[in-house]
Write a structure and sequence with these properties.
heterodimer, A: mainly alpha, two-stranded antiparallel ribbon, 2 strands, B: two-stranded antiparallel sheet, flat
Chain lengths: 508, 170
């Protein structure tokens, strides 16, 4: 139970006045970006990141991770009150959340969503607290081949699990790798892919890309749809909260299932969005009145929110112990870690215990505080949403421009952001997934280094990826996931033998 | 009415599938550019070590392959689907953000970010939101003052400044 001692030490780090204040600021900003269309957790964190360069890393990561929790909470507000998902991960919440609001049960739905989120996150944090040190200890033995195999597993699972067409996922990912290679080669010192442009020599910064793709791209898509916000009123009284809380134990099965799905989807980078849909689907399958789903069932709000938040939280587990983020926001946080001068990976636990355990403790505190803050401030944020988009849109663009400028203190960041905004618009409309692009952009250099070091050690033989049981099983699993859509299609074709039926059932 | 708009949009940007194919052509070109550029650096194996272009060259190859399958699938889809990429009236709304945004970026370089932001926010509100001049200007100027306070005073991060700021002594 060494974890308890370290965790208490973490609480003492997180509970200093300065850090607690940053926690609150992070949560409020997070709810704000979660509520506003065009701003989400990945680009919200990316915009704020350059401002944290002067802060102590522990305080910075506490603020930014709290922003992430806030955004996850905030996404539910727009889904339930306005039938507009503020975050992709809260799309599934609209199915039953908005009908509940229409029936005048908005307060109940909101309480359920927030509490579900909180419980999901709590399970995710427990997982991190007790599993992370174990995995980190285990991963200390990892060499370049093992690391490359884990990277491969991450990228392959995106292709296998993602709902977008496999070729588009691969293309998005490779473009990310290509952009990561721009600039100076870390091993040989050569300039690569700069095409003689001095702007490209310093490399393409992932923060600028994230702000462009997610921020400007989202604004363009939102403007095209011409959103009009016509929402339901929200007022939450303590009496309704307590009554809803009293009814929650009835849904323990749904909560537990969703939390488990969420944790699994977060650790393997399936993402919060996929987790929320899966949580919703499974809850519907297990429900006694499945046909009432979509008309305003409490479980239909609880399940996706619990799964999404559990997934969002546990996405930080692989980021902390292996340096591999489980979501786009975790990828941005990972980039932040590197900028703050911390080397993500298993060594972090022994070399920076204050940082790691301060962050983990802040997750507990941040989610408790987040739940209370969001319950108290729902009416305010609902009012912000009623501000017309013709005021909100230019303000968001100004914030994005300031964010892109501060990355390198140069206008080239702003122009690059504009270009990626247009790219993001086309990619979003054409169903290209953006998370793999960000992930490979952040991880590209590290994955390449791991690959080249491995190749140096093996003198160019790929057999090294099967040279011991550990690396062999990770590599094999990665390849299975990569070809999963093909395998599943073959299975389905082979006829309806009892085994294939059962396996397909498990898969879907 | 809506049908003619749809048809005109069709001639302007093409169907969803055609845009899909066109984007695949662009990414294919990117893949070729990556291969050519890294091919110069050497993409093979010399003296028992991979050259600097080894990894990116293969990335370029995969970009081309993926673009090719996307292109083919898009063409196959183009035969049966006539889904429009973006209707003309909707495209107009996109341009209505994009054009002032680009003008704003140019203005930042000449006027500094504070003046440019105030003009951009006020102008956008006035034109797109049809707010009164007074309301638009108040929100625009308030936005810039808030930015100034936050960045120059609180975070001590200098943002681009222009003639007005130097006249005021910053």
């Amino acid at each position: 139970m060494e974890a308890f001692g370290l965790l208490f030490h973490g609480f003492s780090v997180a509970l200093t006045g300065y850090n607690a204040w940053l926690m609150l600021v992070g949560i409020l900003l997070g709810i704000l970006v979660g509520v506003l269309p065009g701003l989400g957790a990945p680009n919200g964190v990316a915009i704020l990141l350059p401002l944290t360069f002067t802060m102590p890393p522990t305080s910075a990561v506490i603020m930014l991770s709290c922003m992430y929790w806030g955004a996850l909470f905030g996404g539910a507000i727009t889904s339930i009150l306005f039938n507009i998902p503020g975050e992709p991960s809260s799309v599934a919440t609209t199915f039953d959340g908005y009908p509940l609001a229409q029936k005048g049960r908005a307060a109940e739905a909101l309480t359920c969503a927030f509490t579900g989120s909180f419980l999901g996150a709590f399970v995710g944090i427990l997982l991190i607290t007790f599993l992370a040190p174990v995995i980190a200890g285990f991963a200390l033995e990892f060499g370049p081949p093992e690391f490359f195999a884990v990277y491969l597993l991450t990228f392959c699972s995106f292709i296998g699990i993602g709902k977008e067409p496999a070729d588009k996922t691969i293309l998005a990912m490779m473009l990310g790798f290509g952009m990561a290679a721009v600039g100076m080669d870390t091993m040989s010192g050569n300039m690569r892919l700069t095409f003689g442009s001095p702007m490209l020599m310093q490399g393409i910064d992932f923060l600028v890309v994230v702000i462009g793709l997610f921020g400007i791209g989202e604004i363009l898509v939102t403007m095209e749809e011409g959103l009009r916000f016509e929402g339901k009123a929200a007022s939450i009284s303590p009496r309704i909260i307590l009554r809803t809380w009293a009814s929650l134990p009835r849904y323990w099965g749904t909560l537990l299932r969703s939390a488990c799905i969420g944790c699994w989807m977060g650790v393997t980078p399936g993402g919060a969005t996929a987790a929320s849909f899966m949580g919703y689907g499974i809850a519907k399958r297990f429900a006694s009145e499945a046909d009432k789903f979509g008309t305003g069932q409490i479980e239909g709000v609880l399940a996706p929110e619990t799964a999404a938040h559990a997934s969002g939280t546990s996405a930080l587990l692989p980021m902390l112990v292996l340096g591999i983020p489980g979501s786009a926001t975790a990828a941005v946080l990972l980039g932040g870690l590197m900028i703050w001068g911390l080397e993500p990976g298993p060594l972090l636990f022994s070399s920076q215990p204050d940082f790691v355990w301060g962050l983990i403790a802040s997750m507990y505190l941040g989610n408790v505080a987040g739940l209370l803050v969001v319950l108290a401030t729902v009416p305010i944020f609902a009012a912000i949403l009623r501000i017309p988009f013709s005021i909100v849109a230019p303000l968001i663009i100004v914030v994005c421009a300031v964010g892109a400028f501060t990355v390198h203190n140069s206008m080239s960041g702003v122009w690059l952001m504009g270009i990626f905004g247009v790219v993001g618009y086309f990619f979003k409309k054409l169903d290209y997934p953006l998370a793999p692009l960000v992930l490979s952009l952040v991880l590209g250099d590290k994955a390449e280094d791991a690959f080249r070091q491995t190749m140096l050690a093996s003198k160019g033989s790929l057999a090294i990826f099967w040279s011991n049981p550990l690396v062999g099983s990770i590599t094999t699993l990665a390849l299975v996931l990569l070809f999963w859509p093909l395998l599943a299609a073959l299975w389905a074709k082979r006829g309806q033998s009892p085994i294939s039926l059962r396996r397909n059932g498990v898969r879907s | 009415m809506e049908d003619t708009a749809k048809e005109r949009a069709g001639t302007l940007l093409g169907s969803h599938a055609m845009v899909d194919a066109a984007v695949a052509v662009v990414t294919f070109a990117v893949g070729v550019a990556v291969m050519v550029n890294t091919g110069h650096l050497g993409a093979s194996w010399v003296n028992g070590t991979p050259e600097p272009g080894y990894f990116p060259f293969r990335i370029g190859v995969v970009i081309c392959l993926a673009s090719a399958t996307i292109f083919v699938r898009a063409l196959l889809r183009a035969r049966r689907s006539r889904e429009v990429f973006v209707r003309l009236d909707r495209l107009r709304r996109v341009v209505a953000v994009l054009a002032p945004m680009l003008a704003y970026f140019v203005a930042i370089a000449y006027l500094g970010i504070y003046v440019a932001s105030a003009i951009f926010v006020a102008g956008f509100m006035r034109v797109a939101g049809r707010y009164s001049v007074v309301k638009s200007v108040v929100v625009g100027v308030a936005c810039s003052i808030a930015l100034f306070w936050l960045f120059e005073r609180q975070f001590l991060v200098p943002l681009p400044k222009g003639p007005l700021e130097s006249w005021l002594g910053y």
